[in-house]
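Reply to dn_fold:

You asked what the input looked like. This is it:
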Amino acid sequence: MVPGLEPAELPADAVEVGRILDAWGIQGWFKVQPYSASPEALSSCKRWWLLPPERAPKPAWPGAVALNIRQARAHTDAVVASAADITDRDAALGLKGARIFIPRSAFPAPAEGEYYWVDLIGLTVVNREGLVLGQVSDLLATGPQQVLVVGHQEAGKARERLIPFVDAYVDEVDLPARQIRVDWQPDY
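and this is what came back:
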C-alpha cells in the first residue's frame, strides 16, 4: 500500500476524470493526464478517489482509496498535483497508472448553454416530430464541433447516428427531463 492513501468507497456520483502518468520532481508531486481539455474539476476538487490501473498484474492497493490534494494546476498539456502524505518521488511513483475519480457534484457549474459530456451520455434524443432517435452513447470531438453518437436499434441490430452538437441541429438540452430535442430525421 502506498503511504498516505486511505481505503474509501467511491462516491455514488463518481466520474473518472484522468489518470496519474508519473512522478513529477522529487518532492512527491505527480503528473496527471486529464480526460478533459478543461480540467477545472481536477483543480477545484480537494479530494480524489483512486482505483488501481486496469491492467496492473498486482495492484499496489486493493479497491478504492482517497487522496487529499494540496494543490493541482495546469502544466502544458497535463496537470501536476501534490497531495498530503505523498512527500517524495518514491511515494508519487507508487501512484503511477492510478485512475482518478471525483464526484460529479464537485464539478464547477458550466456556463449557460455549456454541458459536461458525462451529463449528456444516456439522454434520449427526440426530433421535432416527437420521434425517438435513440440515446446518446458517446460524443466525438471533431475539431470545430462535437458530435453526438446516438445509439438505436434498427431491424434488430445496434446502429449509431451521428448528430452535430451545434445550434443548427440541437433545439434544446433538457437535463432534468433527460432529453435532447433536435432538428434531425431518422434517414439523415
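The mean pLDDT is 91.
Hope that clears it up.
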